[in-house]
Amino acid sequence: MSVLDLADYPWDAVAPYAATARRHPDGIVDLSIGSPVDPTPEVVAQALREATDAHAYPQTVGTPALREAIVQWYERRRGVSGLEPGNVLPTIGSKELVALLPLLLGLGSGDVVVHPRAAYPTYEVGARLVGATPIAADEPDDFPEGTRLVWINSPGNPDGRVLDVADLRRVVARARDLGAVVVSDECYAELGWDGAWASAPVPSVLDPRVSEGDVSGLLSVYSLSKQSNLAGYRAAFLAGDAAIVARLLTARKHLGLMLPLPVQHAMAAALRDDGHVAAQKEIYRRRRDVLRPALERAGFRIDHSEAGLYLWATAGEDAWQTLGRLAERGILAGPGHFYGEHFPQHVRFSLTAPQERIESAAARLTDS
Prior knowledge:
The protein is built from twelve helices and 13 strands.
C-alpha cells in the first residue's frame, strides 16, 4: 500500500451535516473535531517570542533544556522517575508519530499492529502504509502471534476509557511474551474526571508499578495540544526505552523530522508551568458539567468518558441518523463509524467549544 491508496479523509463525510448545522438561526455549535479554542498561555507565547532568532537548523533530538523539561515533567506529573535525556524525543505533534511509527520501527508485511477497538484511525493508517495487519483488540489474550506493535490509548479517544495499573500490567506482560513494543498514547492524561481519576493521576505505561522499573519495549507518547492549547505549535514528545528512542532518532534525522527551535523553547516553558494546565482543566470541567447532563436529559447514554476531552454517547440508533438530528438543532458531532466498526451507534462530543456555545448546545438538546 502507498499513500496514494489511502481512503478519502473521513471528516469530509461530515461536511453536509456541518452545512445543515450552520443554517441554525443561532449558528453552529461545533463539537466534532476537538481543536482547542482557548488562548495559548502567555508563558508559552512569551517563550516563543524570545526564541525567534532561529537562524540555524534545530536539532532533531531537541535542545538540552527541552529534554530535561520532559524528564522532569514525567517525574513530577506522571510519577515516572529514572528517565534521562536519552529516554526522550520531541516530535512534530503526535499524529505524524502515530502514522510513521510502524515505518520507523521497520514493520512490514506479516507483522501485526494491535490497536484499541474504539480507536483514533491513524493507528490503522500507519499499519496499512507499511503493509502490516491492523487488528482491533482490547483484551491482551486476543493479541495474536506475530504482533510487533501494540498501541494503547489511555485516556481513550474517542471513548475516554482509562486503563488502570492492573490493566496496563496485563498489556505489558502479554506484549513482552510476544516480543512486541507497547506504545501508549497518553495525550489526555491530565484530564481525569470520574471515579478514581477525579483525584488520582491517570497512570502511564512507564509508571514503575507497571514497568517494574524496566522500560524496555515501552514508549509513552504525549502532546501539549490539549493541556496547553498548542495544537497549532505541533508540540509533542515520546519517552521510554532508550534503545528504541535512539533508533527512532537516527531515522528521524535522515527524514528531517525536527521541531522548529522556537517551538522547542515554547514547549520547555509549557512543561515547566503547571498553573496554566490546572486552569485549562477547570475550563473543560465547566463545559463538561453543562454538556453531559444535557445529553443525558436528551436521551443519550454516556459510556466510559471518565477522562479525556470527549463524551462518548449513544442514542441507540445509527450514528449518521443521530448526526442528522443533531445537525437540525445546529450541533455537529463525530460519528462512531470513524473510530472502527464496533461502535456504529456512538457519537463523540468534544469539549473544545466556547462556554457560550456549549450552553447553547445544552439548551437546544433539551428544548422540546
